[in-house]
Design goal:
Elements lengths: L43 H16 L6 E5 L5 H10 L3 E6 L2 H10 L5 E4 L14 E6 L8 H9 L2 E14 L8 H12 L9 E2 H10 L2 E8 L1 H26 L2 H20 L2 E10 L4
Parallel strand pairs: 1-2, 1-4, 2-3, 4-5, 5-6
Antiparallel strand pairs: 5-8, 7-8
Helix pairs in contact: 7-8
Length: 284
């Protein structure tokens, strides 16, 4: 799921687990995304919330929506939709069993939470279709066609979707074979398959073919990749001081490697981080 969560592979916990305490979120249901870092922002949880809000605002999320949150992680986004958007019907899908159990314990008023991959939506017996489906900082671990196929199975006739993904810039085709191979291995370390990435133009075409309109693709590379890298670089000493009491050496390594990856992707400009929003074509 989340880009920096994919580095944990040798511990018994799921590979997408993250020690949010080290990143500055002490909440019972913490955030776990790269964050949307605006000027002057120095708080991890606030940046994570800003990324969620930016996505929600793109689809016009409102209290009357029946919302499905894909890859809802440790539950912070679910709590946020309840408290700040007053969403009346809310369901989540999460692959990590420990997160699902925690959400069930601390958000008993949630309409539904499903322990599953969001690439298995067709196999879940939802009680109804959804007006809105959001996937915060998680979709890039899968191909866009596979994601859209699953989303289409749960959408009603007037629905909106929003998710984050990675795209290839126009400069990609100018790279030689060796350079492209280096990117392939680099992205694989974060559980991202290079073959799943498209150009922006191909992304628009793909969404259109799956029956979506009002498509918006916004480049958030500076605020997300550059912002997260800068936050870790500026706060690494403080994060390391927390390690003895709050985390392991592997937790620190995973965070550092993710920050370095974000820095390289941002500065190279070959792979861009984008926010995608769209409506079902028959909405209007």
């Amino acid at each position: 799921m989340k880009l920096f969560q994919a580095f944990q592979r040798r511990l018994p916990e799921h590979k997408y687990a993250i020690n949010a305490v080290l990143l500055g979120d002490l909440s019972l249901l913490p955030w776990s995304n790269l964050g949307y870092w605006q000027d002057g922002q120095q708080h991890y949880a606030a940046a994570c919330q800003a990324l969620a809000d930016h996505l929600a605002q793109a689809i016009g999320l409102n209290a009357t929506d029946k919302l499905l949150d894909l890859g809802c992680g440790q539950g912070a986004s679910l709590l946020h939709w309840q408290q700040h958007y007053q969403v009346q019907y809310l369901a989540g899908v999460e692959l990590q069993g420990s997160c699902v159990s925690k959400i069930q314990q601390h958000l008993p008023e949630l309409n539904a939470i499903y322990h599953a991959s969001f690439l298995r939506l067709k196999q879940i017996h939802f009680s109804q279709k959804f007006d809105a489906v959001l996937c915060i900082d998680a979709a890039y671990h899968h191909s866009i066609p596979a994601l859209l196929e699953q989303m289409n199975s749960v959408l009603n006739s007037k629905a909106r979707i929003g998710f984050h993904h990675l795209v290839l810039s126009e400069r990609w085709e100018s790279l030689n074979t060796l350079q492209k191979r280096k990117y392939q291995f680099l992205l694989k370390s974060a559980d991202v398959n290079l073959n799943d990435l498209m150009t922006v133009g191909a992304l628009y075409q793909c969404l259109d073919q799956f029956g979506f309109s009002h498509i918006q693709v916004e480049d958030l590379s500076t605020a997300v990749l550059g912002g997260f890298a800068a936050y870790i670089e500026q706060n690494l000493a403080a994060i390391q001081r927390l390690r003895a009491a709050k985390g392991s050496g592997l937790d620190i390594f995973k965070i550092q490697m993710t920050a370095k990856l974000c820095r390289k992707l941002y500065e190279d400009g070959i792979v861009r981080y984008v926010q995608v929003s769209a409506h079902t074509k028959h909405s209007f």
